[in-house]
Amino acid sequence: MDTMSSLKDKLKADLSAAMKSRDEVRTRTIRMALTAITNEEVAGSAARELTDDEVIKVLSKEAKKRREAAEAFANAGRQEKAQAELDEKAVLDEYLPAQLTDEELNRLVEEAIAESGAEGPRAMGQVMKILNPKVAGRAEGARVAQAVRARLSG
């Protein structure tokens, strides 16, 4: 099994560097990311090595958790906790593909609707099926769904 994810290798190398430079935020965040990846690898009936795309999905999920936690802490008036979550999210974002701009997302939505021939809100599933692989890791699911819903209903 030497098809190990190069992104996972990069995370491990960056963890060593962060530990040597005593960068606590990077060390904590990369450790957490590697743990999440390992958990995903051993989940299911057989252990397996994740591909780079699967690693990106795991990192996207972790980044989303950090963003949501930061919002919750900020709403509760706990700024230092919110900032800690945002700092971790910033580290994770370095390993994720650049997020799509609204214009890029809207163009991909238009292409998917044209490709599926979808009309009306009921056809959202068809459009999402075509669109999801194209935006994987580059836009959050809720944001994609909102763009599709807006375009189909209107």
Q: In the CATH hierarchy, what is the superfamily of the largest domain?
A: Uncharacterised protein YqeY/AIM41, N-terminal domain
Gross CATH architecture of the largest domain:
Orthogonal Bundle
Helix content: over 70%
Q: Indicate how many domains the architecture comprises.
A: 2
The overall pLDDT, averaged over residues, is 88
Number of helices, counting only DSSP H or I runs of 4 residues or more: 7
What sort of overall outline do the alpha carbons produce when their principal axes are compared? globular
Cα distance, first to last residue?
A: 49 Å
Structural class: mainly alpha
Q: Give the ordered list of helices and strands.
A: HHHHHHH
Can you put this structure into words, describing what you see?
By secondary structure, this protein is mainly alpha-helical. It has helices spanning 6-20, 24-42, 52-75, 79-93, 102-116, 124-135, 141-152. It has two domains: 6-93, Hypothetical Protein Yqey, Chain: A, domain1; 102-152, Arc Repressor Mutant, subunit A (Orthogonal Bundle), CATH 1.10.10. The chain starts with 5 loop residues before the first helix and ends with a helix.
